[in-house]
């Protein structure tokens, strides 16, 4: 009874806490803000922070325990839908014509998806009246869906509503793997080319007068596009039940992957004696049926996180736990985000809007599974598992699942009721020395030097994080420095070796050995961000510029410097690479703790879930305050008194106003970040921030009506106003004559007044990719007077003239330009001074939707800002000569989008002088491009596209051949990647002899969605040149319905000898992949995946003379054979019997998958299926179309 009362009390307490959290969230923000929408970049670094930092002691200061940012505390998901991706409410959106399918097929399909498989599916249950506009709720549902099924029935195109749905689906789900077309008793060719009822319906829409021609064309484009995707044809199935099952299986494997491979972030792992001992104990506990919760404890920096990651990997490899999921916990846990991470790794969508509801869904998912290992890393004070959705002990035991947690404190293991508490000890003296010597990379030639190094190693307390930091700091130093370091560490040693002061002194020593004050400042800046946060290097750059760290440098030189510093900090083990995110770094939580202690003049409460402004002692003389990533509603009513404050970071709070007097006493402030707050007014005291150098106002959700105050900030150098709801670039910005960087990306600017940009004569970087693109035009209707929609309506209209493009060319210091241009006519015919832009991203395109598709407001700027990109819907002959000299000659990345005048890319090469081009992408439709390159007209005998590395062709609807005629020697000699997709008129062979011999360095070939292509390669002549395809390592052949053979005619035996990965999907006329002669030389093949090739009879075809020759695929590791309905043997000839021995070996095969190969009954099949039953379930062959199911024959 007493135990029951205790449990009841706990339940009530948890419920009350959860309800309080829910009520607070209702007030503050209805839904959690995704990392993608809240990813910020704005902080700045102090040089002067070093003076105080160097004199700081090891004592703890007012700074709190570091707390990670709410969306950064968790490990990335390994499921198809990453935890960093925007939150999606539905798994699947069903698009269908109600009159055709609602009451029968669609109802059955919806029931199987929603009720039977638990896949959250949106199905609209209303029939729209003819002519009625599409519901906004429908469009929103599409945006909130991860996947779409489009039921293309006979009368689908008669509904404008359906066509609008389809257009929106294609817009939101640009990845073809997110759309599944179902051809419901219609022919795919009728859909693609709008024949039959589809053509009649589109014609009727065009003639009705209710829809303009642009809209009808968008509908046609959407139908053409979706018909090219891999889908299902109802006529291929005997019953509708079979069809429904096939669709549910296909969709379920994408949105509900049953098992995924556990991916670890730690690449280099060397288990020392202490680690091996702890790992062995953990593995034993995982095998013990009586143990459900296991705790690993040890001092910070001893390597707990790395160890449990590898335990998880080992447990999956040994099939103890097919599924391993992991979440990192912060000192103040964010339950919502923990739930999201665990759900993502389980392939589960959480649609509930309360923590309680999400916990219920997560618990149900875990208890319905089997053998799931849940790792909770870095628990600080204990957490109620049921509040997350982790089942109770008895429930976990019933589903054979366990919890593995790590913590710094043993008593946390007791509070979490761990049945096994395992200590991870520090390294032994010998292991410490082994790691230290490896990191120091010093031979220690004399005995004196060796002994001193051993002494220093011994002073590091056996902590890997300290050993690495000290070893790298002293590695190249002379003996005298080693003596000083040894004495310093010896003096600082506490009575107990595991005291955290050891860590502090070791990392402080590494910090002190940094070579410059700028390096030290950049290191300390990183502790202003939340724990486990991916810190953008561009943020560090801009904060450093704002603080004055790079006063003598231009921005590009400063960017080079910061990248050099970051690399040196990583080499010193003071920073880490971000997890798969380019342009970012991370700071180990232990090192961040030390950095906060070093920086006595920093007040850090980043990512602490604060709802109110904290108490800050003004007498401490803080120079930096970081309150980013909290839930603070407002600043204090009284003014902030911090006379020495240089950096104030308030981004990602929910404040909607700033009191008038807040900034009156911040006259030394140099860096201010208010991004992603909801402020509607800048306080009048804003104009007193006369020392401000860096200002971020990105994504402020409300209109900032007094934006003109910015004109008073005369020292401003960095101004970022991404995603602001401004209709007009404020004229007052023209007064900021010291401005070096201006970013107006993705704002709804319609007017850029003249003589604003040209006044910014010190501008080095300009990012102005926004709605505005009509340079030099009159402001339409002259209706915009104010900066915002509301101001314009209130103040009336007057005539405006937009800035001309000449204003850019007049900026002599401009090095980076990113801009949209609607028409080549916006460009001046000539310029007085030719610009020297080091980097540019210019789009010249009439279609606003194309320009919009190039914007990704959540993505960071290029990490080194060195791109040279050009997007065109026109040809080179429409561009002025100066533009060719300044831009196209330097262009490295060129895209043609809907360029209907494009005839021959060789002509473009010569007219644009594209000698520097590395990346070429042609995206259709195109009316005239029947041959990509033609040399029928004489061309100079010099190489063309000599530096091109990647060539992508996508949806070029009239393309019939890639090359006509002979190209000069050394043309295309650097091409590494060729990708051709959705070019329906390409026929015969993709790569013929005239092009094949020009591709000696081709490494990857992808060929998809072409109805007429018969061969991939064809070579005319007696012998293939020895250099042909010698570097080819990867081929992907997908949805090639007419492909007969990979190679036309006799192929050289060694032609594919270096291929490592081969994926073949939906090539229904292929009868085999290779002859035995070629198979004998597949020396490097590692991954082979063959799927849905309905005519395939054998993978390797032998003649009667060679059928008994033994074939060995010596490096094959992964093999998948799926839905091969005619496959009888892996290796054999036409006369081979099913039970004849197959002379085939796979000595290194690790993972195999055989599914729906109903007449495949040869000896090879028995071997493969046997292996399937023994191996862990992995994502096979790097196939990214879908995560495979665990269904076995």
UniProtKB/TrEMBL annotation:
Chain intervals for the UniProt region annotation (Disordered): 52-73
Pfam families xrefs: LRR_8, LRR_RPS2, NB-ARC, TIR, WHD_DRP
Domain TIR residue range list: 88-255
UniProt keyword terms in alphabetical order: ATP-binding, Hydrolase, NAD, Nucleotide-binding, Plant defense, Receptor, Repeat
Single biological process term from Gene Ontology: signal transduction
UniProt biased composition (Low complexity): 52-64
Gene Ontology terms for molecular function: ADP binding; ATP binding; hydrolase activity
Alphabetized SUPFAM superfamilies for the sequence: L domain-like, P-loop containing nucleoside triphosphate hydrolases, Toll/Interleukin receptor TIR domain
Family: Belongs to the disease resistance NB-LRR family.
Name of the protein in its database record: Putative toll-like receptor, P-loop containing nucleoside triphosphate hydrolase
